[in-house]
Specification:
The complex is a heterodimer of chains A (about 170) and B (about 850). By secondary structure, chain A is an alpha/beta fold. Chain A is built from ten helices and five strands; from the N terminus they run E-E-H-H-E-E-H-H-E-H-H-H-H-H-H. In chain B, the strands form five sheets. Chain B has a four-stranded antiparallel sheet with strand order 1-2-3-4, covered by helices on one side. Chain B has a three-stranded antiparallel sheet with strand order 5-6-7. Chain B folds into four domains: about 190 residues, no CATH class; about 90 residues, no CATH class; about 200 residues; about 220 residues, hpI Integrase, Chain A (Orthogonal Bundle). With about 850 residues, chain B is an alpha+beta fold. The longest helix of chain B has 23 residues. The chains are: A alpha/beta (about 170), B alpha+beta (about 850). Chains A and B meet through helix 1 and helix 3 of A and helix 28 and helix 29 of B.
Chain lengths: ~170, ~850
């Protein structure tokens, strides 16, 4: 394994052997969309939890094999900002750190991706009273950090679930 | 036993006999030669071609989508099983397609195109491969020679595009052309037109040079260039077969297909209407109100593309590029000849415009004229001729008809002639209902045949006196005015009135009085429907208005009462009898009713609520489609947006500071169609809800592997999923940007109106609430010359429009229960 920085264009997409699995879990409802992250916060998260890739045969580009949720947000970010190409050049999300695995078998790749989806969902998710807990985070952490996540800055977003239940 | 031409290689790959037929079908579609040389590279191209966006010619057709997904799977297995021999791989040294595929270019012309890699403009060739891929599907089932390809045309196409990868001009053009998105085949052909223009400019080909005959085999380099220019044109013609054009083929024997001579236009056109002459020509008769005998004929060449037709747009609402006016009815040939020769002169145009603007000045009678005239009509008289003039005068005045049109005034309700004056138990004045003429022959408009109006007291008095006269002995008792000399053309009535009242009033002035007052009081559309007379000005108003007959009856009463009051004739009630209330609607076709939209919005919200419970299975795909449909319909009812282009106002198009949207829902060069729409707060909320939904849905598109396809078709917002019938966890879906047809398909079963029903409904509903026409025009983007919001001399601001419409909009929001529903949140 090796940590390198690559331009976003070199990520060719999800590894073809993973498409079936991601399709099957496509209806999962995570609590955040791309709108809940600022560019800087997403870039910082990608440093903390890099995307994992393997190199393509005979090509320069890479297939993504883990860090699926990060890769999803990154792809949506680029899809939404494709029109402002010139501005996108300066974005910190243009070159990103990735962990390159060498010579992983199909089985290993599928295993790694499954661990990612199953594990990360319970590793980070908040239990009950989500809105109240997010509120707690907002109040106890430095404002500079919290401001980087639009989700925390509006009461409406925090209490989304509550109001919908009513 | 089924054998295929590929059996030899199939055996090498270990493909079982049962499977071979599917693989063979796929390989034939790619135009593969039996030895499958270089197949790996072709398959790789095929997979890459379909990873990104698809042409809508593919996406829209469920069978093609299914087939593509199936072949996609086959392509991947074939690549895995293909022997690793060098002959199946891309050749590292040889780049020249002619040498590489020597010997198979004639029999398999498309195969090299599926193989080639072009680094100058890979996108162009990607879309080309999609065009070639969908070609057999489109041509399937076509039998006419003019609608199919000939064998040599396949070769032409193969050769032409192969040459594009080496020709100097083509490479120059390809390098500077951005081909990242392509909507459909039509768009692809558009690129070839651009290439042809580029070629001509680059080679500086003059007009006279292009007239000469040139052969590609010629030794003269200039002639070669000319021949190549013509070749581009030929390829365009050939590819245009795919989008429904017919290519002319030489046939034996000449057939005379001209229309029969001397077919006079007047026979084909009923008054005030349009008629289709040939497929793309329309003749319209325009009557000028103050000189009704002088009729102008205009000839129009409308262009309504498929999208507008699907949306339900009317021809009159479209901008006409060419308008030709004539003063006389001529034989058909004359129009055609003139159509090619003469442009509409500015002065005629100005005359018509002036007519529209200052029409009323010389036509109006003063209030005292009306008083003298009508007062005389109701007074008792001695002579029968006096009584006849009084009766006809009041008929002309109250029916808004010219004297000669009254000749067949009938007294029998069952009679087919109009007008009818019914004087039994139920007294009423029946006028023929206004029928809009449509260029196509759909006839489901106005469901009433006549409009029953209450009879004004003055008319009733004049009539009673006339038939009570001892000398009254008509030849036909059912048609009391049939042989009256005053009901003929000419000035008999004018002379009669002058003799009796010393007033010089023409029949036109008399018949136009109530009509013009109705235009002023209720707007031109309502006046037209009331009196069965087309008003000058914007036709669009009329083609979008449908009113209940009951409302017209009520307004007729208001109109006559007001006119009599103004003329100081209020010593007796204007009406003594009421008419039964008619409930039928009169006016444009396919105008949805309030109840239709109430039901539609209610059904859609229930549907969304149900689906929301099942979002943990594939139903989120259906949820997206219904949610998109709901947002488009609900917002459309507040904005009156045409269901063309995007069909929806997105957050990016809203100017928040002034709560206005700037959108374009038509294609033409003037400012008529860049619309500035004042927005209701709910319309903005709907746009915001859709934006939040899109942010969530993009993540899902990524997970099912179609995010790149979405980008490939131009990142459309809103978009629909197609091929959703049997969606399972493999998500064999396709994406399409908004199209009126798709909206209609998604509303199928819940709503029967046209996609632009919102505009017909809004216009009709506002008219029925007596909202001033110019405000409705401003909302809907209709225009009367000189009255439009965007006219330089206009003094009305959008804020005025918003404030006038505001209360009505609020009522509408309440009646229809329009809400901004939440879509997917993640």
């Amino acid at each position: 394994m090796q940590l390198i920085t690559v331009p976003f264009e070199l990520l060719a997409g999800l590894h073809p052997k993973l498409s079936e699995q991601t399709k099957k879990t496509s209806q999962l409802m995570y609590s955040a969309t791309i709108a809940d992250f600022s560019v800087d916060s997403l870039a910082a998260l990608l440093q903390l939890y890099p995307i994992h890739v393997v190199k393509q045969k005979d090509e320069e580009s890479y297939w993504v094999i883990a860090g699926l949720r990060q890769f999803e947000l990154l792809s949506v970010f680029h899809a939404k900002n494709v029109s402002s190409k010139a501005a996108a050049k300066t974005y910190p999300l243009n070159s990103i750190p990735v962990v390159v695995h060498d010579k992983a078998t199909t089985k290993e790749i599928q295993h790694l991706a499954a661990i990612d989806v199953a594990g990360s969902a319970i590793l980070f998710s908040l239990g009950t009273k989500v809105a109240a807990q997010l509120d707690l985070i907002r109040e106890s952490l430095p404002e500079v950090v919290v401001q980087q996540f639009p989700k925390f800055s509006s009461d409406r977003r925090l209490s989304d679930r509550k109001s919908r239940k009513e | 036993m089924y054998s295929t031409e590929y059996d030899e290689v199939f055996a090498l790959m270990g493909i079982s006999e049962g499977e071979r037929i599917h693989y063979a079908e796929f390989l034939r579609h790619l135009d593969t030669p039996p030895d499958m040389e270089r197949l790996d590279a072709v398959l790789k191209n095929f997979i890459a071609t379909y990873n990104d966006g698809w042409l809508e010619d593919i996406s829209l057709d469920a069978t093609v989508v299914q087939q593509t997904y199936q072949w996609f799977g086959l392509a991947e297995t074939l690549r895995e099983r293909l022997p690793s021999d060098e002959k199946f791989q891309r050749s590292a040294e040889e780049r020249d397609l002619g040498d590489l595929f020597h010997g198979i270019l004639t029999a398999y012309p498309f195969y090299p195109l599926n193989y080639l890699l072009n680094f100058d403009n890979a996108d162009f060739f990607k879309w080309l491969r999609q065009v070639l891929f969908v070609l057999p599907f489109i041509l399937k089932g076509r039998t006419k020679e003019t609608e199919r390809f000939k064998a040599y045309e396949y070769e032409n196409i193969g050769l032409f595009f192969r040459e594009m990868t080496i020709s100097e001009e083509a490479l120059l053009w390809l390098r500077q052309k951005d081909c990242s998105t392509c909507k459909n085949i039509r768009c692809f052909i558009g690129w070839l037109y651009e290439y042809r223009a580029f070629f001509r400019k680059h080679c500086a080909l003059s007009y006279s040079e292009l007239q000469t005959d040139a052969k590609k085999s010629s030794l003269d380099p200039r002639e070669q260039i000319i021949a190549r220019y013509h070749e581009i044109g030929r390829i365009i013609q050939e590819l245009e077969i795919l989008i429904g054009y017919q290519k002319k083929r030489r046939t034996s024997g000449s057939q005379d297909k001209r229309p029969p001579a001397h077919s006079r236009v007047t026979e084909d056109i009923s008054m005030h209407g349009v008629t289709a002459l040939e497929s793309d020509l329309i003749i319209q008769i325009e009557t000028l109100p103050d000189e009704a005998e002088q009729v102008l004929y205009s000839i129009l060449q409308p262009e309504l593309d498929d999208e507008l037709l699907d949306a339900g747009e009317e021809i009159f609402e479209q901008q006409q590029d060419e308008v030709y006016l004539f003063a006389d009815a001529e034989p058909m040939e004359a129009y055609i000849a003139a159509f090619h020769g003469r442009r509409l002169s500015k002065s005629v145009m100005r005359r018509v415009e002036r007519q529209h603007q200052y029409l009323t000045n010389q036509q109006t009678l003063s209030n005292s004229d009306v008083y003298r005239l009508l007062n005389w009509c109701r007074q008792p008289k001695v002579y029968q001729e006096e009584k006849e003039v009084a009766f006809i005068t009041s008929m002309v005045f109250f029916c808004g008809l010219l004297p000669y049109e009254l000749m067949l005034t009938s007294l029998d309700l069952q009679d087919e002639r109009y007008p009818k004056l019914i004087c039994g138990e139920q007294k009423s004045l029946a006028l023929r209902v206004f029928k809009l003429q449509y260029a196509d022959n759909l006839t489901n408009h106005s469901d009433a045949t006549s409009l029953l109006l209450p009879v004004p007291s003055i008319l009733l008095q004049a009539f009673d006196r006339y038939i009570a006269d001892p000398d009254y002995s008509p030849k036909n008792p059912n048609y009391p005015l049939f042989d009256s000399k005053f009901s003929s053309r000419g000035s008999a009535l004018q002379d009669g009135i002058e003799l009796e009242t010393r007033l010089s009033v023409t029949a036109h002035q008399l018949s136009s009085f109530l009509f013009l007052r109705a235009c002023a009081m209720f707007g031109t559309a309502c006046a037209t429907l009331m009196f069965n007379r087309p008003a000058p000005g914007s036709q669009a108003r009329l083609y979008y208005t449908s009113l209940e007959a009951g409302l017209l009856q009520e307004r007729y009463k208001q109109l006559v009462t007001k006119v009599l009051q103004d003329a100081n004739l209020n010593d007796q009630p204007a009406f003594e009898y009421d008419v039964p209330i008619q409930t039928a609607s009169i006016g444009c076709r396919q105008a949805p009713k309030l109840e239709d939209y109430q039901a539609l919005l209610a059904t859609l919200s229930t549907k969304l609520q149900e689906l929301r419970k099942n979002l943990l299975n594939q139903d989120w795909v259906h949820f997206h489609n219904y949610f998109t449909a709901y947002c488009i319909v609900a917002q459309g009812l507040l904005t009156g947006l045409r269901p063309t282009h995007q069909g929806f106002i997105t957050v990016q198009q809203i100017l928040y500071s002034s709560k206005i949207a700037v959108v374009r829902d038509k294609d033409s060069a003037d400012e008529y169609h860049t619309r500035t729409i004042p927005l209701h707060p709910i319309a903005i909320e709907i746009a915001e809800a859709y934006q939040a939904h899109m942010q969530a849905i993009l993540g899902r598109l990524h997970r099912i592997g179609v995010l790149k396809k979405w980008q490939g078709i131009g990142s459309p917002e809103p978009f629909f999923f197609t091929n959703t019938e049997n969606v399972d966890s493999s998500y064999k879906l396709s994406l399409m940007p908004f199209k009126p047809r798709l909206l209609q398909e998604n509303l199928n079963g819940y709503f029967s109106g046209p996609p632009n029903g919102n505009r017909k409904f809004l216009r009709s509903w506002f008219e029925s609430q007596s909202v001033p026409s110019y405000c409705i025009d401003a909302l809907l983007g209709h225009g009367n010359l000189g009255e439009t919001v965007w006219h330089p001399h206009n003094t009305m601001s959008l804020e005025d429009v918003r404030q006038t419409l505001g209360p009505y909009m609020n009522t509408l929001v309440r009646l229809l229960n329009i809400k901004a529903l939440a879509g997917l949140t993640s």
